[in-house]
């Protein structure tokens, strides 16, 4: 359940970042209408001048096909920029998640193993396995020893999962 909440939060952050970039005019999405400033809407002369400037920037001897290919190349570079932004945000979220797991592992490793085992016992098993995998072997084994006395099946599952998730 916690992972669904984390995933939902990440989606909200990514969508919010993309929306912020879109509304600030930094990024343009080809599937959304372009943002027009109030100056462009109030003064048709400016829009007309801008369109004539754009037409002078393109060589006159280029065919319509070449011009549309240039436009497609520009939009693909924008799409690549969007992908880079999303990838960077995802990497940052992953780094933050790893730091959180490392902090939780440090806190639990500084606790008495019996108290830490009680906390681990109440956690989601996948989260507990990830946290234990960030601890050194001695600390994790002490906690798993304590957990074995109360719930040996969970301790076995955690041990198996720790091998699969080993340190992030």
From TrEMBL:
Q: Where is the composition biased (Low complexity)?
A: 67-84
Extent of Polar residues compositional bias = 40-66
> What residue spans carry the region label Disordered?
34-84
- InterPro entries attached here? Mg_transptr_MgtE_intracell_dom (IPR006668), MgtE_N_sf (IPR038076)
**Domain Magnesium transporter MgtE intracellular stretches:** 90-160
One Pfam family in the UniProt entry: MgtE_N
Which protein are we looking at? MgtE intracellular region
Q: Which organism's genome codes for this protein?
A: Thermodesulfobium narugense DSM 14796
